[in-house]
């Protein structure tokens, strides 16, 4: 592995590694110290991201590098390999090792491993406030004596102890404080083969924890155990998951309608002004049409349709994550993925796919096994992303619920949408099992799944993180792809061959095949042209039915439904539309991400072909059965 990582900050100062187990508040410590002065990059040749930020203390600059959360440095995964390599690199002058005060013994194993690699270590015992609430007392001075390195207690969320942490770090970097030589010698003596070293470090971590931690309340985690009895039990775990899914979808559907309409109206007004300006400066009609009817209309549609539900869904998703519920989801689904020959961590990447399939693909980095990572990547598209929700919601509401806006109809839409999502999840299990028995044969690996303590989410932090790290990131990526797509769509709708446009000719060519799927050429063409972003599928379909040369938006679902009925839609068309929305090729953003993660054209094509074939075959079978039993 290369040992050079290019830092982006102009005033790098002293480079400090920030390491720790997952769920110990490591990134909170990093964020509190660096504020918004951050940059994210990848270690050369790896897909693991490293967040880098600067802070100033007593006139000196420090460049903190937030390493991926790991339980060890045994190089069993990219995260562990990168963490170990950076700590040992010439760049890193010292390491802050963040521990969980409520579970110190588990964290000390990593501390001791890091101390074997580096002489300059500062131990940050974080979440000390939670430890106090649970009656857990830690003798910090004794812990510092036993470890032989500086130990500082912090509660990063409340900014408690961070000044002391920086003071200790400054002394370590300057050489004023050094590791106890006896401890250094003792750690050196433990080194043998990896297995022996690990066992020895675990034993020492246990001894140190017993000598420094006192539980004044032996039943300190009673509340967590009671919640887990409900949320992870066989009889209640899955039903509660489904109920929470319905609630999240209901809030997303019910809350996004009005903001979407407001945004669409604002963009329509702006569009009118843009057209007036184009006429005022005598812009050529072809250029006006390409820029406004094409690029602008597609972009405004993507934003107005995509932004409101994402701005609701991602914060809700992040709240569950902060609360500590998502690891319970992985726990509940672990046996199902194991039976499918996959990894239980795939449950977490699947959840990420609800917001964006590209994000779900990136999330597969947490899976250590290359085989199981590929299974998770190939099947991630079966979970409908945020861009497909508008299609599903519209069709479900118009044909199976009714277009009236009420709490009851919104709840029924959420239930049916949840049912659709569950179908996608079941398909994920089935395809994962099929892959594990054919082209990706293997035995499912075991992994350590930590169930972190339940914590009260920080609402402000959740909103900021979900909006900036997820919503705007995904939206910007969709915009950069949708803009050129708008130009292509406009050209196809406006360049004529004889009496018809290229769009009409192409639609007529694929119509017979689409009819076999219970669809029509206009629907299938909308999916094809919607390859850059699923959000534009419905506008393109409307444009095709109305023979418009620009994207068109209805004022109500009733108007939209009447247009579909006039063009031959039935319940079967609506059903196949839903099925094909779940089972069709990934969007271009997801495919690009798949290639970046796998570095393989083969697996990118496999990820494209499997859901596409699944969608075509499923729709054809549904259509055949409907006609066979004379249901249409």
Summarize this structure as a short list of keywords or feature phrases.
2 domains; 632 residues; 25 helices; P-loop_NTPase; 7-stranded mixed sheet; membrane; 11 strands; Rossmann fold; two-stranded antiparallel ribbon; single chain; 63% helix; alpha/beta
Q: Give the DSSP E fraction (strand runs of 2 or more residues).
A: 5-15%
Strand adjacency order, main sheet: 2-3-4-1-5-6-8
What global shape is seen?
elongated
Structure summary, number of beta strands:
11
Helix coverage percent: 55-70%
Overall pLDDT score = 85
Poorly predicted runs: 40-47
> Main sheet, how many strands, which sense, barrel?
7 strands, mixed
**Total number of domains:** 2
Multimeric organization? single chain
First CA to last CA: what distance?
Answer: 62 Å
- Could you tell me the radius of gyration in angstroms? 28 Å
Q: How many separate helices?
A: 25
SS class:
alpha/beta
Write the layout of secondary structure elements.
Layout: E1 14-20, H1 26-34, E2 38-42, E3 49-57, E4 60-66, H2 78-88, E5 94-100, H3 104-117, E6 121-126, H4 128-133, E7 136-138, H5 140-147, E8 151-153, H6 162-174, H7 181-190, H8 194-212, E9 213-215, H9 222-231, H10 237-280, H11 285-323, H12 326-339, H13 346-355, H14 357-363, H15 370-379, H16 389-401, H17 407-437, H18 459-494, E10 496-497, E11 500-501, H19 502-516, H20 521-529, H21 537-546, H22 557-566, H23 571-582, H24 588-598, H25 601-628
Parallel strand pairs: 1-4, 1-5, 5-6, 6-8
Antiparallel strand pairs: 2-3, 3-4, 7-9, 10-11
């Amino acid at each position: 592995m290369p040992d050079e990582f290019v830092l982006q900050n102009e005033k790098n100062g002293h480079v400090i590694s920030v390491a720790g187990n997952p769920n110990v508040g490591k990134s909170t410590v990093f964020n509190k110290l660096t504020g918004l002065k951050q940059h994210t990059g990848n270690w050369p040749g790896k897909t693991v991201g490293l967040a880098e930020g600067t802070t100033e203390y007593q006139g000196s600059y420090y460049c903190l590098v937030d390493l991926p959360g790991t339980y060890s440095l045994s190089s069993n995964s990219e995260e562990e390999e990168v963490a170990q390599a950076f700590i040992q690199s010439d760049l890193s002058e010292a390491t802050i090792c963040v521990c969980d005060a409520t579970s110190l013994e588990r964290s000390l194993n990593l501390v001791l491993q890091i101390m074997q690699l580096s002489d300059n270590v500062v131990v940050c015992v974080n979440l000390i406030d939670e430890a106090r609430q649970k009656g857990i007392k830690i003798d910090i001075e004794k812990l510092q004596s036993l470890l032989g390195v500086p130990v500082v207690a912090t509660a990063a969320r409340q900014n408690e102890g961070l000044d002391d942490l920086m003071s200790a770090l400054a002394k370590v970097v300057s050489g004023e404080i050094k590791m106890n030589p006896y401890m250094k010698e003792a750690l050196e003596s433990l080194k043998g083969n990896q297995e022996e070293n690990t066992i020895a470090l675990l034993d020492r971590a246990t001894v140190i924890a017993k000598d420094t931690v006192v539980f004044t309340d032996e039943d300190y985690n009673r509340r967590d155990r009671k919640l887990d009895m409900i949320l992870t039990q066989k009889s209640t775990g899955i039903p509660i998951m489904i109920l929470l899914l319905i609630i999240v979808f209901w809030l997303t559907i019910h809350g996004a309608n009005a903001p979407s309409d407001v945004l669409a109206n604002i963009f329509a007004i702006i569009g009118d002004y843009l057209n007036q300006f184009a006429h005022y400066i005598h812009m050529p009609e072809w250029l006006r049409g390409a820029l406004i009817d094409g690029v602008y209309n597609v972009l405004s549609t993507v934003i107005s349709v995509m932004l409101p539900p994402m701005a609701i869904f991602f914060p809700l998703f992040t709240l569950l994550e902060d609360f500590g519920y998502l690891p319970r989801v992985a726990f509940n689904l672990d046996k199902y993925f194991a039976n499918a020959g996959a990894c239980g961590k795939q449950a977490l990447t699947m959840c990420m796919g609800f917001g964006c399939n590209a994000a779900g693909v990136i999330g597969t980095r947490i899976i250590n096994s290359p085989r199981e990572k590929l299974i998770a990547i190939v099947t991630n598209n079966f979970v409908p992303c945020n861009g497909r929700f508008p299609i599903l919601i519209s069709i479900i509401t118009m044909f199976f619920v009714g277009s009236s806006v009420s709490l009851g109809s919104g709840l029924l839409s959420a239930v049916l949408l949840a049912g659709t999502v569950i179908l996608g999840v079941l398909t994920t299990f089935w395809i994962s099992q099929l892959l594990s028995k054919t082209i990706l044969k293997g035995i499912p690996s075991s992994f350590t799944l930590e169930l972190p303590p339940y914590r009260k989410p920080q609402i402000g932090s959740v909103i900021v993180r979900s909006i900036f790290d997820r919503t705007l990131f995904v939206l910007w990526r969709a915009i950069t792809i949708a803009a050129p797509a708008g130009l292509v769509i406009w050209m196809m709708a406006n360049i004529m061959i004889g009496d018809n446009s290229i769009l009409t000719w192409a639609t007529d060519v694929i119509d017979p095949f689409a009819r076999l799927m219970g669809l029509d050429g206009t629907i299938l063409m909308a999916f094809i042209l919607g390859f850059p972003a699923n959000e534009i599928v419905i506008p393109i379909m409307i444009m095709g039915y109305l023979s418009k040369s620009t994207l068109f938006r209805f004022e109500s679902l009733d108007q939209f439904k009447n247009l579909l009925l006039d063009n031959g839609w039935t319940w079967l068309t609506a059903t196949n539309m839903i099925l094909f929305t779940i089972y069709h090729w990934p969007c271009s953003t997801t495919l690009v991400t798949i290639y970046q993660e796998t570095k393989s054209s083969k697996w990118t094509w496999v990820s494209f072909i499997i859901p596409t074939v699944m969608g075509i075959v499923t729709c054809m079978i549904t259509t055949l059965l409907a006609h066979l039993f004379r249901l249409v």
